[in-house]
Write a structure and sequence with these properties.
The protein is mostly beta strands and 136 residues long. It is 3% helix and 38% strand. It has one domain: Cupredoxins -  blue copper proteins (Immunoglobulin-like, Sandwich), CATH 2.60.40. A 5-stranded mixed β-sheet has the order 1-10-5-2-3, with no helix packed on it. The structure holds copper (II) ion.
Length: 136
């Protein structure tokens, strides 16, 4: 069975050229390798999302409304993933929050105030990686 192409010829390569669009991005090199669980070094109250095997570990994010919060994204894959929060599913609606795709790393981002309500999130590289967001 043919191996999937990897490396610089991937269309994802251009997407990941800038891993941190926000100056607020803090890179936390995942401390322990070899599949160990990440150290619980995230800010208090952080919303934590894992990506593994092209799947998010949750299909519903519950986030605080009307207040800034930290989003910790743990990408356990070599594939690039990101999270975009939008007002409608898929690529429809307005972008509420997003960051550029990253691969094989953990990042912690500061998310600005989101009005109370229901939203959608997806990985823009793999739109089937998706779910809902409840800001309450
Ligand atoms: Cu993805």
């Amino acid at each position: 069975m043919p191996a999937a192409p990897r490396g610089s010829t991937s269309p994802a390569a251009s997407v990941r050229r800038r891993s941190w669009i926000l100056g607020l991005v803090v890179i936390l090199l995942a401390g322990c390798g070899g599949g160990a669980t990440p150290a619980p070094s995230f800010p208090p109250g952080a919303v934590v999302v894992h990506a593994r095997n092209r799947t998010f570990d949750t299909t519903q994010l519950i986030v605080p409304a009307e207040t800034e919060f930290s989003l910790a994204f743990v990408n356990e894959d070599g594939d690039s993933h990101n999270i975009a929060i939008r007002t409608k599913s898929g690529f429809d609606g307005d972008v509420v929050f997003r960051f550029d795709p990253v691969s094989a790393r953990t990042i912690v981002l500061s998310v600005g105030k989101i009005p109370k309500g229901s939203y959608f999130f997806l990985c823009e590289v793999h739109p089937n990686m998706s779910g809902t967001v409840l800001a309450r």
